[in-house]
């Protein structure tokens, strides 16, 4: 009895030691990868901050119409980009480290996330480009409408901005496959609804207003419109 | 009086004093006017330069009407036509230029090259779309070059005080303040130049620069003003242009093209104008034509309302280039009633200079920035019209001179901000 107990105890101990022995190198590699990722992330963050500062990135981004204060408490686009790069490297390091642990569930998770990563990056790029285009077009619309004397220029500008942002968001979500059908339907219904509503408003409610606006466009220009400014 | 700029360049084959006088005509869809212009130029060359060899160079910028045929018909077998087809590029179709001639820089370059090849002593360039060209225009422009050794003769048209406001309010004061030359219409299409200046400008890099097709008129003037050349003005009377069948550009596009070209040149010649000091007298023009220009109708209240709308909606964009003090001054101005609406000259000068710096620093898309200047220009125009609408033409000219002096006075402001742009937003 005592012998059997000892054998069982030894077997259990051996199993534990074997498990620890097989887990420990993986854990050490995990820690090593994590530490390496941390160091690389720090280096990249620092390099990006310095490089972008040297390129006067903050001012250029503001010139494109971004106000970083809306996105980050630091109010600096270069700090934001550096932070995003820092956390991206850290997360990548974490996922790589998980595969080193050789644990089925974390490994599967890491592999699936890594496979999904290009889609995420592409979606993020769509969002960023959409944001830049939205702000650029919104500003162009605002300035153009003000120069045409449109009193509700701001409203038009905001409308254009959100239209482009919504299209970009829909494209990004579609790209990563989240709610594809629902999104398509919702977007189609919303967009079609807006166009239909505008058409109804123009055709019924604002017919006279639109008529007068067209009339203004087609009539002879005002005296100062005919001025030769050059 | 000679300008005392530093740049001087002599081509490989300097123009000879007995070289021909070349008259260059720029044509584009000018079938209605080109015949009369060619006839006037022929007569002008015959009358004013009877003892000198003369040549006419006709450059067509791709007319699809009967322009070329009518020009040949008008010239007959007298004189000589050098017909150069200036091909239009894709960009020419996208950017309808304010001066109405697509690919104008290529056309002007072709004329100047022809003049240089002939070792011309003088080259006069005219727009074949102008209805009021007379034989005397050739003499008034080219004789100072041939007889009095001037290098550049800029036209001075008789215009109503309200006409050419962008030139009077921005282009002339800036060119005068920066280069110290009193050429009142620096963006004019017509001019005459000496063989020496022809060789100089052909060696400049203005031809290949982005935007050259739009800004060539201004850039040639500043090339002459910033070099060691003798400058003069010639009064040509009234300039009336025929219809080229294209719609007039909106004010925003005109400002983008004209002011944008000026600001581009400012960046290119920064080292030159920062050294320039004082005002170099330019030979004044002779007596202008007696005919009084027709007064255009200007709706001052609409202009002020446009400025107020701009302040309300575009203030955020303006704050990228204008210091807080200027924004406050604008607010005070816009709170005033129409009768008291006066935009201070020095404030306007600083606004223009700040926009030039904003363009240089690329604080926003260049076109957006320039288009956002439209409401401010409307405000200045309203203020200017209120001040000159009840005064004589001479008093209106004096008003423009006073404005130009304000630009002169604020040049130090421009230089300071140009050199230390980090102060842009802090003052």
Fold and architecture overview:
The complex is a heterodimer of chains A (230) and B (427). Chain A has 230 residues and is mainly α. Chain A contains seven helices and no strands. Chain A has helices spanning 2-54, 57-63, 77-100, 104-147, 153-175, 180-205, 207-218. The radius of gyration of chain A is 29 Å and the shape is elongated. Chain B is of the alpha/beta class. Chain B folds into two domains: 21-273, Spore Coat Polysaccharide Biosynthesis Protein SpsA, Chain A, CATH 3.90.550; 300-419, no CATH class. Helices cover 49% and strands 10% of the residues of chain B. Chain B is built from 17 helices and seven strands. A seven-stranded mixed beta sheet of chain B has the order 3-2-1-4-6-5-7, with helices on both faces. In chain B, 55% of the residues are buried. Residues 1-12 of chain B have low confidence and may be disordered. The interface between A and B is medium-sized, with 27 and 42 residues.
Question: Which key features would you list for this structure?
Answer:
heterodimer, A: 230 residues, mainly alpha, 7 helices, 82% helix, B: 427 residues, alpha/beta, Spore Coat Polysaccharide Biosynthesis Protein SpsA, Chain A, 2 domains, 17 helices, 10% strand, disordered N terminus
Topology:
The complex is a heterodimer of chains A (230) and B (427).
Chain A: H1 2-54, H2 57-63, H3 77-100, H4 104-147, H5 153-175, H6 180-205, H7 207-218
Chain B: E1 21-27, H1 34-48, E2 54-60, H2 67-75, E3 81-85, H3 90-94, H4 104-117, E4 122-127, H5 135-148, E5 152-157, H6 165-179, E6 191-194, H7 195-203, H8 212-225, E7 231-237, H9 251-268, H10 270-273, H11 300-318, H12 324-334, H13 345-361, H14 366-371, H15 374-388, H16 393-409, H17 411-419
Parallel strand pairs in B: 1-2, 1-4, 2-3, 5-7
Antiparallel strand pairs in B: 4-6, 5-6
Helix pairs in contact in B: 1-2, 1-5, 4-7, 4-8, 6-9, 6-16, 8-9, 11-12, 11-15, 13-16, 13-17
Net shape of chain B: globular
CATH class of the largest domain in chain B: Alpha Beta
CATH homologous superfamily classification of the largest domain in chain B: Spore Coat Polysaccharide Biosynthesis Protein SpsA, Chain A
Task: Order the strands across the largest sheet of chain B as they lie in space.
Answer: 3-2-1-4-6-5-7
Rounded mean pLDDT score of chain A: 82
Which chain pair has the greatest contact? A-B, 27 and 42 residues
Gyration radius of chain B (Cα, Å) is: 21 Å
């Amino acid at each position: 009895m005592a012998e059997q107990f000892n054998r069982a105890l030894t077997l259990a101990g051996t199993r534990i030691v074997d498990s620890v022995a097989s887990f420990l190198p993986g854990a050490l590699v995990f820690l090593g990868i994590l530490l390496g990722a941390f160091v690389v992330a720090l280096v990249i963050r620092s390099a990006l901050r310095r490089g972008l500062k040297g390129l006067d990135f903050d001012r250029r981004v503001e010139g494109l119409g971004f106000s970083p204060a809306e996105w980050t408490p630091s109010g600096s686009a270069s700090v934001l980009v550096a932070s995003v790069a820092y956390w991206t490297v850290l997360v990548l390091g974490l996922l790589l480290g998980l595969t080193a642990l050789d644990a089925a569930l974390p490994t599967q998770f890491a592999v699936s996330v890594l496979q999904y990563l290009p889609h995420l990056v592409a979606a993020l790029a769509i969002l960023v480009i959409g944001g830049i285009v939205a702000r650029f077009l919104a500003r162009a619309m605002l300035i153009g409408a003000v120069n045409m004397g449109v009193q509700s220029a701001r409203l038009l500008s905001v409308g254009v901005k959100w239209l482009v942002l919504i299209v970009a968001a829909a494209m990004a979500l579609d790209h990563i496959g989240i709610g594809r059908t629902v999104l398509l339907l919702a977007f189609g219904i919303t967009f079609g609804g807006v166009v239909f509503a505008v058409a109804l408003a123009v055709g019924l409610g604002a017919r006279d207003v639109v008529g007068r606006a067209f009339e203004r466009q087609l009539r002879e220009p005002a005296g100062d419109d005919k001025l030769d400014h050059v | 009086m000679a300008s005392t700029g530093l740049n001087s360049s002599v081509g490989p084959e300097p123009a000879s004093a007995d070289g021909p006088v070349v008259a260059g005509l720029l044509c584009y869809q000018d079938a209605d006017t080109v015949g009369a212009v060619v006839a006037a130029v022929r007569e002008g060359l015959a009358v004013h330069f009877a003892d000198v060899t003369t040549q006419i160079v006709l450059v067509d910028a791709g007319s699809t009407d009967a322009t070329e045929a009518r020009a040949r018909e008008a010239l007959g077998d007298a004189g000589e036509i050098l017909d150069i087809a200036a091909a239009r590029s894709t960009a020419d179709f996208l950017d309808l230029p304010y001066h109405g001639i697509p690919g104008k820089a290529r056309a002007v370059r072709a004329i100047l090259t022809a003049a240089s090849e002939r070792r011309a002593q003088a080259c006069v360039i005219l727009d074949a779309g102008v209805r009021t060209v007379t034989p005397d225009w050739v003499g008034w422009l080219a004789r100072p070059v041939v007889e009095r050794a001037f290098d550049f003769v800029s036209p001075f048209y008789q215009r109503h005080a309200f006409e050419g406001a962008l030139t009077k309010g921005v282009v002339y004061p800036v060119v005068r303040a920066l280069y110290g030359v009193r050429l009142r219409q620096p963006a004019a299409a017509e001019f005459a130049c000496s063989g020496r200046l022809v060789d100089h400008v052909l060696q400049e890099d203005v031809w290949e620069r982005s935007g050259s097709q739009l800004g060539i008129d201004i850039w040639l003037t500043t090339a002459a003003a910033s070099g060691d050349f003798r400058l003069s003005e010639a009064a040509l009377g009234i300039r009336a242009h025929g219809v080229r069948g294209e719609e007039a550009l909106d004010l925003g596009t005109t400002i983008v093209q004209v002011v944008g070209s000026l600001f581009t040149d400012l960046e290119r010649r920064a080292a030159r104008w920062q050294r320039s000091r004082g005002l170099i007298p330019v030979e004044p023009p002779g007596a202008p034509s007696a005919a009084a220009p027709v007064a255009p109708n200007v709706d001052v209240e609409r202009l002020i309302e446009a400025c107020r709308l701009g302040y309300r909606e575009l203030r955020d964009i303006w704050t990228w280039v204008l210091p807080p003090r200027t924004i406050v001054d604008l607010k005070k101005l816009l709170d005033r009633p129409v009768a008291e609406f006066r935009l201070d000259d020095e404030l306007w000068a600083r606004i223009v200079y700040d926009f030039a710096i904003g363009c240089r620093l690329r604080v926003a898309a260049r076109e957006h920035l320039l288009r956002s200047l439209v409401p401010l220009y409307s405000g200045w125009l309203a203020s200017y019209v209120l001040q000159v609408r009840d005064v004589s033409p001479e008093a209106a000219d004096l008003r423009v001179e006073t404005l130009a002096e304000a630009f002169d006075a604020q040049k130090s402001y421009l230089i300071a901000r140009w050199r230390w742009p980090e102060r842009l937003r802090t003052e």
